[in-house]
Amino acid sequence: MKILTTNYLACAVKTCKSEPAAFPLHFKDAELAREELELNPEFIKNVLPRIDWPALAQTAAELGFTTLPSQKPENLDEQTMKDLHTLLMETQVMEGKLVCGNCGYEYNIKEGIANFLLPNHLV
Amino acid sequence: MTASDILPAQEYLIHFAQIHECFRQPEINALAKRHSLPLVWKSYSNASPFAIITLPSDTDARTIISDSILAKAIYRLLAHSSDYDSLHALLRSRPELIPETIRKATFKFTIESYLHKRSKSSQRSVINGFAHLPLTGTVTLDKPEVKFTVFEEFPGSPGIYRQDGPTNPISVGLGVFLSHGSRSTIDTYDLKKRLYIGTTSMDAELSLVTCNLAMAGPGKILYDPFSGTGSFLVTASHFGAMTLGSDIDGRQIRGKKPGKNVIGNFKQYGITSRYLDGFTADLTNTPLRSTRFLDGIVSDPPYGVREGLKVLGHKDPAKNGSGEPVVVDGVVKFKEPDYIPPKRPYSFNAMLDDICRFAAAHLVDAGRLCFWVPATNEDGIEMQLPKHPALELIAVCPQQFNNWSRWLLVYERIPGELDSMQVPEKQAVPQRATASELNNFRKKYFEGFNQKPTSPSTE
């Protein structure tokens, strides 16, 4: 699971949808991996306006990446582009859990694939 | 000669494959929109492989065709008419139709005949008919600078090329070859050569066309909420899009053997850097937060013929949504490592409505939703075209089988926020019902359509 993806994921429980604490989800026992991928400047440029920056900064900090600027960068110079690519695309969580800050539900991540299926008492 | 025989220089001829005819114009329209090109159709018929368009330049013509799956090639059209006599008269009277820039070039001539077979000598005599053209370059069969192509279309039955049929064509034209379409990509993504496929993987050609209709391209994010083995994900990424997939069955994403999974397919095609992620989820309980970040949604939702369409929840509605987990002998069941949440049958029409609502809430302005729905021949598609005030229906493309059909529906997100639109309340879905009661298509499928049914799986 890439860090970019987590910026679009909230708790799947319907009663959590309107709760600010249900986004972003929090990693627990995360095993990180880095996969070298081709830099796609056009994609980074297009996706940047669609990123919730405070949520990204929080996710990054929880995983120990503290060098992210506190504000969304306005100009994408080459280094900023590379840094964003490394964090958003190349950094992946292979094993661990994503936890809802509102209801506490834990979603498992196995082999990089998160499972958001809910038991029937929550649907 | 009539005024319509006099052609402005920016006319181009598209030579289409004579297959999936209803998809051809929508595909080219989508490519024009993706590249912001001012395309105008001058002539088009599903019965003909030749269509005439206008575009500002040869470069634009090459651009529009480069990713087309259903176009074989594009030509700069020099002249066209109803028969050879008037075509030659036109070319003799207006020598400027042959641009100065190509008169001195090395060249060769070829013929594209539709519904007619010509012998070598017959081809030669047609080509010799163009000897009056003001060409001073030499004929070169190996890598000529200019490839002239003669187009001729004959009356007849689709697909049947006759040598002894009518001798007079219904239309003829002369063009200069510019560029091929992308039909060879169909072979690259052929399911027979793909490492990991499932029983309902969509064939390469229609997967690629679907992704073109979704305007998949570099810099975009496309999502398939029923991604299965990832047919649409790889084909959307082929065109440069970043792709995200989910499926209620996580085993589909993970695969059974190492390497034989969705990521394995991306590796096979050398497009790993365009795979964003795959996750296990149910569209009716999606973890994707409500923000408009998707450029396109492509999907072939499960028809539910084999197992019935399923979503999360117990089939007994009394057991859902209690908020209290099931505990057996002091063990909280859902926390068990091998726990599999219960699933219940769901209405196909409700799912179509859910897909539209999801698309309206997640697509960017002008983002596209492309998905497939099945229909019985007696009902047709009109019965069940889903509607949403934020989605404009752009194209409806049928693929006909013996006694059923499937239809690709293409919608575009109308700009604006949902708050300002009159979105109807979601209709209640019957909680206790069998898979067939919830899905008219499934019911009719098992009733046999009165004939031997063809399998709705696509292989």
From TrEMBL, chain A:
One of its GO terms (molecular function) is protein heterodimerization activity. GO terms for biological process: rRNA (guanine-N7)-methylation; tRNA methylation. It comes from the Eukaryota. One of its GO terms (cellular component) is cytoplasm. It holds the Pfam family Trm112p. It is found in: Cytoplasm; Nucleus. Keywords: Cytoplasm, Methyltransferase, Nucleus, Transferase. Belongs to the TRM112 family. PANTHER family: MULTIFUNCTIONAL METHYLTRANSFERASE SUBUNIT TRM112-LIKE PROTEIN (PTHR12773:SF0), UPF0315 PROTEIN-RELATED (PTHR12773). This is Multifunctional methyltransferase subunit trm112. It comes from Ascodesmis nigricans.
From TrEMBL, chain B:
Its EC number is 2.1.1.214. InterPro entries: DNA_methylase_N6_adenine_CS, RlmKL-like_Mtase, SAM-dependent_MTases_sf, TRMT11, TRMT11_N. One of its GO terms (cellular component) is cytoplasm. It is found in: Cytoplasm. Keywords: Cytoplasm, Methyltransferase, RNA-binding, S-adenosyl-L-methionine, Transferase, tRNA processing, tRNA-binding. It comes from the Eukaryota. SUPFAM superfamilies: S-adenosyl-L-methionine-dependent methyltransferases (SSF53335). The keyword Metal-binding does not apply. Gene3D superfamilies: Vaccinia Virus protein VP39. Its main location: cytoplasm. GO terms for molecular function: tRNA (guanine(10)-N2)-methyltransferase activity; tRNA binding. Coiled coil: none annotated. One of its GO terms (biological process) is methylation. The keyword Metal-binding does not apply. Residues 193-308 form the Ribosomal RNA large subunit methyltransferase K/L-like methyltransferase domain. Residues 11-183 form the tRNA (guanine(10)-N(2))-methyltransferase TRMT11 N-terminal domain. Belongs to the class I-like SAM-binding methyltransferase superfamily. TRM11 methyltransferase family. PANTHER family: RNA METHYLASE-RELATED, TRNA (GUANINE(10)-N2)-METHYLTRANSFERASE HOMOLOG. This is tRNA (guanine(10)-N(2))-methyltransferase. It comes from Ascodesmis nigricans.
